[in-house]
């Protein structure tokens, strides 16, 4: 497949989520900054674009995949998937990670003071993500579903108090960017989630959980930024053309 057919990183990952592993390997942000082209990113980072293209094509030409084709999901189905998979994941894992991080600070904080900074970052993230998800669950997602259902049934809907759907989407994407930067900082502080030589089992488990949490968040943001939000904007355009 030719690189010109997919001008942005996000579109590569929409085409086949397996490519996300390649981008992560080279430190390329496919979720929050997925609107950049591979050429732009490679030039900025000094990466070999031919090498990365070859790896991408190897993945795309491989038939073995267990990944869902998210781009084929209806907006309603994609919202339900995000809620049941990613929102529930955050709600389930956050209190466990907070407990483990507090324990690590008490036991290992004197030898590893970076644990206090990691914990503060995660605490802030937990609070911000909880508010962020509520805004999606109570405002944005219901309106996207309303637009989709309206087009299916040819029913007219009232314009929301926030005006165009671009307004809450812009807010959500800005908040995604903040979280993306926060977890980049956590990755640095944790040495890419590699525990130190004197780490106990709880230390190792906590870092592994943080790594998994970040990966889940990246996929979560990718599904919203690169698929759902774009579909929502197109839904609104179609509705406006009917009125």
Mean pLDDT level: 91
Which residues sit in consecutive blocks of at least 5 with pLDDT less than 50? none
Coarse morphology: globular
Helical/strand content category: mainly alpha
- Major sheet details: none
The helical percent reads over 70%
% residues in beta strands: under 5%
Number of helices: 8
Alpha carbon gap, first and last residue: 40 Å
| SSE order | HHHHHHHH
- Strand runs, count: 0
What does the model show?
Helix 5 (75-108) packs antiparallel against helix 8 (201-242) and helix 7 packs antiparallel against helix 8. The protein is an all-alpha fold and 243 residues long. It contains eight helices and no strands. The chain is globular.
Helices and strands in order:
Layout: H1 9-15, H2 19-25, H3 38-45, H4 49-60, H5 75-108, H6 114-153, H7 166-189, H8 201-242
Question: What's the short version?
Answer:
The chain is mainly α and 243 residues long. It is built from 8 helices and no strands. The chain has helices at residues 9-15, 19-25, 38-45, 49-60, 75-108, 114-153, 166-189, 201-242.
């Amino acid at each position: 497949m030719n690189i010109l057919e997919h001008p942005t990183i996000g579109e590569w990952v929409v085409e086949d989520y397996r490519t996300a592993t390649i981008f992560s390997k080279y430190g390329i942000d496919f979720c929050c900054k997925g609107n950049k082209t591979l050429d732009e990113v490679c030039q900025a980072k000094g990466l070999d674009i031919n090498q990365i293209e070859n790896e991408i094509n190897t993945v795309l030409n491989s038939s073995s995949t267990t990944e869902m084709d998210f781009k084929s999901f209806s907006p309603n189905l994609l919202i339900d998937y995000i809620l049941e998979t990613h929102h529930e994941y955050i709600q389930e894992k956050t209190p466990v990670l907070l407990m483990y991080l507090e324990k690590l600070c008490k036991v290992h904080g004197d030898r590893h003071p970076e644990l206090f900074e990691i914990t503060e970052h995660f605490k802030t993230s937990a609070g911000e993500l909880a508010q962020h998800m509520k805004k999606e669950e109570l405002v944005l997602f219901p309106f996207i579903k309303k637009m989709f259902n309206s087009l299916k049934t040819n029913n007219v809907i009232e314009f929301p108090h926030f005006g165009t759907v671009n307004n809450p989407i812009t807010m959500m994407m800005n908040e995604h960017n903040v979280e993306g930067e926060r977890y980049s900082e956590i990755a640095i502080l944790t040495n890419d989630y590699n525990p130190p030589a004197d780490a106990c089992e709880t230390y190792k488990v906590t870092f592994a959980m943080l790594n998994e949490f970040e990966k889940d968040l990246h996929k979560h943001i990718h599904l919203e930024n690169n698929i759902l939000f774009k579909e929502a904007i197109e839904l609104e355009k179609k509705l406006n053309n009917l009125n």
